[in-house]
Amino acid sequence: MTALTLSTAAPSGLRADAVVVGVAKGTKGDTNLVVAPGAEAVDKAYDGKLAAVLETLGATGGEGEVTKLPAPSGFKAPVVLAVGLGALPETSADGATFDAESLRRAAGVAARTLAGAKKAAFALPVQDAEDAGVIAEGALLGAYSFDAYKESAQDAKSAKAPLAEVVLLGVKPRDKAYKAEIERATALGEELNRARDLVNTPPNDLNPEAFAAVAQAAGKEHGIKVQVLDEKALTKGGYGGILGVGAGSSSAPRLVKLSYTSSRAGKNTKHLAFVGKGITYDSGGISLKPAGHNETMKCDMAGAAAVFAAVVTAARLKLDVNVTGWLALAENMPSGSATRPGDVLRMYSGKTVEVLNTDAEGRLVLADALAKASEETPDAIVDVATLTGAMVLALGNRTYGIMANDDAFRTSIHEIAEEVGEPSWPMPLPADLRKGMDSATADIANMGERMGGGLVAGLFLKEFVGEGITWAHLDVAGPAFNEGGPFGYTPKGGTGSAVRTLVRLAERTAAGDLG
């Protein structure tokens, strides 16, 4: 993991592989480049001509753009790396405050660009401790790489290690607020990157039992109580949804409960329950996915990875809120013992479900976990799942959908997601779509109308949430796994989508901001 340090040192005297500065598009047009605050000393070393030099090299200040140039005379670092912040804020041309996401993305791009380097000094705009925190967060997330399985000599040689150390300049190393933000960024960054590792791990190495073992180890390390229900306990408890999905696999399913209890917990302490879909590999089961649609299905446990990371982060930050995480883990495979289309499952809640499509399996494992989580009557439940291709068709690859049984809570989740830099969009739960799941055989079918499939899935889940409990459903099927090239602080592969939303929700709840 990339190390973070704070420093008041001048950029010229710091021994590093590079000094990172920010540049932006000015207010007079795209060609009017502006050096961002934080880089004044670097600009001065270029006799105030850093912007002109960068423009000569073709830099525009566009978001994510990177330009390298030799450091000026007298600098111990050999290179200056200028990263684009996008448009200059209109508030003021000198000392303008850039929004958090611009800083986060710029830091991520810089960290990724400097892969293989041992140390980099970041002289980006820092107005306050929060700015320092988002820059640190972006750097940690942008420096991520997953090379665990590259063992050939050629691959090992071409793979560059993540940037080893980031030094944030222009900050206050002894200030409590700055220290707190860096500690938060470190905990969040490490756990989010662990979620990415889990998503990227091949399914032959991460089956339900292996995932449960990771949770148990983390629980022991961070003082989280972990309970694992194996196939015998699931059978005894009547978890028909989880068992039905896992019936075709030689790797038995698991339901993992992680309980973080605040050290300051009292009768008024709020309780959040997070529920994650954890299909460690999804072949589609008997309703087999065609070639071209199953190669990345190791990522179908991204919801459980996000929930796991969020609970551990809450524990590391010692938040004054009780958080319970439920990981519904199974592998969906075809075999002679697999659930068939037409089978009826008796769920943990007692309801019966006619399975019309075994590739609509995520809602089945979530239904059991939601019903179980509801028994503890938490103040709110949020589930996270790579649930439907329909949501990807609706919102694209970078935005997740939010559904809820409470409009105000849905709005709060949306605001939180936007605040932390996770694009999302509120979606409805139209009552008229419920009829499409009526079954002549069972209480409900696991499929309904094709149009609006993501909303139908949300309506199905709603059936298993306890009465009177506030609930939201995050369908992260689009942003959970990036099949394209890296951008900002987002790598190729597992992204850790929804982790930051869940953590900020826990923080706000602890602060009493959500009622």
Write out key terms for the chains shown.
alpha/beta; 515 residues; 15 helices
Side-by-side strand order of the widest sheet = 8-9-11-10-14-18-15-16
Quick check: average pLDDT?
Answer: 95
Question: Roughly what percent helix?
Answer: 25-40%
Query: How many distinct helices?
Result: 15
Number of strands: 20
Helical/strand content category? alpha/beta
**What's the story with the biggest beta sheet?**
8 strands, mixed
Terminal Cα span: 36 Å
> Overall 3D geometry?
elongated
Radius of gyration: 24 Å
The low-pLDDT segments are none
Which range does the strand content fall in? 15-25%
Q: What does the model show?
A:
- The chain is an alpha/beta fold and 515 residues long.
- It is built from 15 helices and 20 strands.
- The protein has helices spanning 40-45, 50-56, 100-113, 129-142, 153-158, 176-200, 208-222, 231-237, 240-246, 302-316, 362-374, 389-395, 407-420, 453-462, 499-510, and strands spanning 3-7, 18-25, 33-35, 66-70, 79-87, 119-123, 165-169, 225-229, 254-260, 271-282, 322-332, 344-346, 352-354, 380-385, 400-404, 424-426, 444-445, 470-475, 481-482, 493-494.
- The strands form four sheets. Strands 8-9-11-10-14-18-15-16 form an eight-stranded mixed β-sheet, with helices on both faces. Strands 1, 2, 3, 4, 5, 6 and 7 form a seven-stranded mixed β-sheet that branches.
- It starts with a strand and ends in a 5-residue tail after the last helix.
